[in-house]
């Protein structure tokens, strides 16, 4: 009874049929493989919370020691492409209005003198409000640079003991290292779900699904034959995107491949079997 209810020969034939139906159809190949790869590239390169390659304008009225140190820190910051020096407050506003800079720093005349007198040096930061998210992140970067300069001004100041958080596998908090591995799993899961849905819809459209139900193929064989191709293709697509993350985006792969593959298989199988 077990042999008649479940046959590996029939299962193998159904599996090969499902895989070939996906790989031979140009539209199915386009739907299954192209969107995940495009989404991986778009989210990895464009959809990021990092701010890079921005221009900053500086109006330094002080030209003292600490204002020079602050400007030097801005010049050496990795997220800043170019620091534009202007001669008036009006030029700062014009650069922001034209969208040529994302933020501007106005250093007053008494900046270094106030610091030398033991007071807090104050500087004005102007941000382009049309790019609110990037502007807020830029202000946070500038505040960090100013805090580093302030720590050099009063090195012996008693500061509260800081809580240092160290990210084990991403110590520099590179945003792409977070987004690409997460996208790999999500896109592989949805690809497996899409493959199963397309298979059933194709069978319904061609009228072969009813023939499949009255064939000698049992219900468990039908379910498994619809799930296994999605599992195999989704896992292969996940491995391809992991390879792209390692070789294209330079993300270090420190795990063991044989320990990660069962997790991808189980996740793809769970989504493909849920249809």
Key features?
single chain, 275 residues, alpha/beta, four-stranded mixed β-sheet, 64% helix
Tell me the layout of helices and strands.
Elements: H1 2-5, H2 8-24, H3 26-45, E1 54-60, H4 65-76, E2 80-85, H5 89-97, E3 103-107, H6 111-116, E4 124-127, H7 132-153, H8 175-206, H9 208-214, H10 219-247, H11 257-273
Parallel strand pairs: 1-2, 1-3
Antiparallel strand pairs: 3-4
Helix pairs in contact: 2-3, 2-10, 3-8, 4-7, 8-10, 8-11, 10-11
Written overview of the protein:
- The protein has helices at 2-5, 8-24, 26-45, 65-76, 89-97, 111-116, 132-153, 175-206, 208-214, 219-247, 257-273, and strands spanning 54-60, 80-85, 103-107, 124-127.
- It is α/β, with parallel strands linked by helices and 275 residues long.
- The protein folds into two domains: 2-45 and 174-273, no CATH class; 54-153, 3-Layer(aba) Sandwich (abc type-2 transporter like fold).
- Strands 2-1-3-4 form a four-stranded mixed beta sheet, with helices on both faces.
- Helix 4 links the parallel strand 1 and strand 2.
- Helix 2 packs across helix 10 (219-247).
- The longest helix is centred in the last third of the chain and has 32 residues, at 175-206.
- It is elongated and about 90 Å long.
- Mean pLDDT is 79; it is low at 271-275.
